[in-house]
Amino acid sequence: MSRKYKFHNGSAAYFVSFAVVNWIDVFTRPAYFKVMTDSLDYCRNNKAMALFAYCIMPSHIHLLFRDDNENPSGLLRDFKGFTSKKMIAAIMEHPQESRREWMLWMFKRAGTKNSNVKEYQFWQQNNHPIELWSTPVIKEKFNYIHNNPVVAGLVMEPWDWKHSSARNYAELDAVIPIDDIGFLG
């Protein structure tokens, strides 16, 4: 098994990406984005997550974070488990969700293929953590995260994507606060 994508250093900061099963564009409604932003903010305030950068795309999420409890794998596992349940419930309850039956069928189908899942699988299992071991690597990941919506053709400028910390760094209204990484300036 490869050691390339694993959390090796509990005290390090990491870049992670994780996607919805089958890359389904779920994050298309404000209520769904709110589940993610509320959950990230909760982790910041109650689970010792230091969040330095984020971007919530329609089908996936990018984070640059550190777990001050030095268990980033556990923190991410709990985050994904909690948000998975919340997202399934939000989809079931959203009165205008035209893709409800199809999405739930896709999540249930993915869940039947995974022995670790009881019913619905919302997130893909991999996270691809990359330890941030130098300033150039950190800057590269910051740029990647913040330019993701631009490259995808969703906005013209990184700070135009509402669900990205690019807004925090541009000193615009942001949906959640971020933590100071200190040396990036």
Please explain how this structure is put together.
By secondary structure, the chain is an alpha+beta fold. 39% of the residues lie in helices and 14% in strands. The chain contains five helices and four strands; from the N terminus they run βαββααβαα. The protein has helices at 30-46, 72-93, 100-112, 135-151, 166-169; strands at residues 13-19, 49-56, 60-67, 130-131. Strands 2-3-1-4 form a four-stranded antiparallel beta sheet, with helices on both faces. Strand 2 (49-56) and strand 3 form a beta hairpin. Helix 1 (30-46) packs antiparallel against helix 2 (72-93). It is globular and about 45 Å long.
Described by its quaternary structure, the protein is single chain
Based on CA atoms alone, the radius of gyration comes out at 16 Å
Number of strands: 4
List unreliable stretches of 5+ residues.
none
> Kindly state the mean pLDDT as a whole number?
92
Order of helices and strands: EHEEHHEHH
Alpha plus pi helix count = 5
Strand adjacency order, main sheet:
2-3-1-4
Fraction of residues in helix: 25-40%
Q: Main β-sheet, in a few words?
A: 4 strands, antiparallel
Question: What is the distance, rounded to the nearest whole angstrom, between the alpha carbons of the first and last residues?
Answer: 38 Å
**Structural class of the helix and strand makeup?**
alpha+beta
Strand content: 5-15%
Shape: globular
